[in-house]
Specification:
alpha/beta; 2 domains; Aldehyde Dehydrogenase, Chain A, domain 1; single chain; seven-stranded mixed beta sheet
Length: 343
């Protein structure tokens, strides 16, 4: 297949995903959208649907061509087999790796997380119906990984140490824990603050692009944030989420730690970037320069920063944009396509 043929196949896939409710051949994907929560209660229909829509919208011919135009050597790639170990914290979190490996011309050998084992195979099946030549280029495995030339692995800091040990001799991209933050200036509109709720609560806050830490001006009224979170009040009806909320609330109460609460999320003043499910960490700052310096000191832990003012050295995005990364916005800032086209 040429690059243009692969672009054609993936753009058709994107259109079919967006029109999935009207196409009988996608009934299995529609079924999974509505029912994956039965095997993983974090994957509620609303959030699975949100991810499918985001993927579908990203797979346009123009966006794919613009993205791949940055890699002029793509037609000269020496095709290899790339093993991809995927996380399962949010629905289809490994799709970009799946896309990158295949559209660069390589074969892919996928080891799925048990938390997200059905959605990607369903999408792969549709892709193979669109372009049957992909059938021999996609393999899913539950067993021991073997017969591959390079590795892309995503996991926790702990699992990354094992990945380094087992796959260090292969060309690799190994990703670790990351979190995201937001800098509130105090002059945000209601629309921007409501968009921030997407950055925080989509996928229950389980993604590396979810905001876990909030920088606010010293005298900022935090209740402005609570008012913008109302659209996500429905998450309190998820038992797993509320189990976390109840547990950490009891910890704060027993330890007499002061916190703010709106009955489905708590905010507490803590310097750590990573927070627990249902908890957001607040940091009050006196000047934007102070907030900027603190964030730059954490750049190796940050996935992205929501801010109205760019910070050189950090991946900054607008309010409501963390969960809609562009094709060239790579996880951990590592250019996956550059890695793949240089194998």
């Amino acid at each position: 297949m040429t690059t243009d043929e692969r672009i054609e196949a993936f753009s058709t896939l994107g259109a079919k995903i967006l029109n999935r409710k009207n196409l009988n051949e996608l009934s299995s994907l529609c079924y999974l959208e509505q029912n994956t929560y039965l095997s993983n209660s974090w994957f509620i229909p609303q959030f699975v649907g949100n991810m499918l829509d985001a993927i579908g919208k990203s797979l346009t011919k123009s966006d794919l061509r613009k993205w791949l135009s940055q890699y002029p050597d793509i037609e000269n790639v020496y095709h290899k087999t790339v093993a991809v170990i995927m996380a399962g914290n949010i629905p289809l979190v490994g799709f970009h790796d799946f896309l990158s490996v295949l559209i660069s011309g390589h074969k892919i050998k996928v080891k799925l997380s048990s938390d997200d084992k059905d959605l990607l195979p369903a999408i792969a099946k549709i892709l193979c119906e669109i372009e049957p030549r992909f059938v021999d280029r996609i393999e899913f495995t539950d067993g021991f990984l073997k017969d591959f030339d390079a590795v892309i692995a995503t996991g926790s800091n702990n699992s990354a140490r094992y990945f380094d040990y087992y796959f260090g001799k292969y060309p690799n991209v190994i990703r670790r824990n990351r979190n995201s933050a937001v800098v509130i200036h105090g002059n945000e509109t209601d629309i921007e603050l409501k968009a921030l709720a997407d950055d925080i609560f989509l996928y229950f806050g389980l993604g590396c692009r979810n905001v876990s830490q909030i920088y606010i001006p010293e005298n900022y009224d935090v209740h402005n944030l609570f008012a913008s979170f109302i659209a996500y009040e429905f998450i309190k009806f998820n038992s797993k989420y509320m189990n976390n909320y109840d547990y950490f609330k009891s910890i704060f109460l027993v330890n007499s730690e002061p916190f703010l609460d709106n009955e489905f999320v708590m905010m507490i003043e803590k310097p750590e970037l990573a927070s627990r499910i249902s908890v957001l960490h607040l940091i009050r700052y006196q000047s934007f320069d102070e907030a900027k310096m603190q964030l730059l000191a954490k750049q190796n832990e940050l996935q992205c920063v929501v801010t109205k003012t760019e910070i050189e050295g950090l991946r900054c995005v607008g309010f409501g944009q963390t969960q809609s990364p562009a094709l060239h916005d790579y996880a951990d800032g590592v250019d996956t396509m550059k890695f793949l086209t240089s194998l």
